[in-house]
Specification:
- The chain is mainly β.
- The protein contains 1 helix and 9 strands.
- Strands 2, 3, 6, 7, 8 and 9 form a 6-stranded antiparallel beta sheet that branches.
- The longest helix is centred in the first third of the chain and has 12 residues, at about 5-15.
Length: about 140
């Protein structure tokens, strides 16, 4: 058996009697896990993807109605959101107006004396209007 010296035994006994000082744990900065930024390659739009749309050249289109006994004659159609456009009366009883329209097919009606919406009787081409009647058709 080994002999323990009394000096060592006293030192061990004294150290056991002393209260242990609490030592604050040193704060160690831990690196945050940072995900690398996902950077997609920048896409560069081509300067000219498609040729610019060319606006269709409008054509002066005449609406003409024979109505010698009418006080006013107007035309309205899908070419202008069904807004009335007045026709001018000629000496021969023909009413007419020229409207610039892009090439296409248009539906319209003639309004006599402000109240009577009718087909253009000089134009036999018609299509169903969707509300049980028909509209005249103008091709430009």
């Amino acid at each position: 058996m080994a002999k323990v010296s009394t000096n060592n035994a006293k030192t061990v006994a004294k150290s056991a009697e002393k209260p242990v000082k609490k030592v604050a744990a040193a704060k160690v900065a831990t690196p945050k896990a940072v995900a690398p930024k996902a950077t997609a390659p920048k896409e560069v739009a081509p300067k000219s993807v498609a040729p610019k749309a060319v606006k269709a050249k409008e054509v002066e289109t005449e609406f003409k109605v024979f109505a010698p006994g009418s006080g006013t004659v107007e035309v309205a159609g899908d070419f202008n959101s069904w807004k009335r456009v007045a026709l001018k009366k000629g000496k021969d009883g023909n009413w007419s107006v020229k409207i610039k329209l892009a090439p296409g097919t248009y539906q319209y009606k003639v309004i006599f004396d402000g109240t009577s919406w009718e087909l253009d009787h000089a134009n036999p081409e018609r299509v169903p209007s969707g509300n049980g009647s028909e509209n005249s058709v103008k091709h430009v």
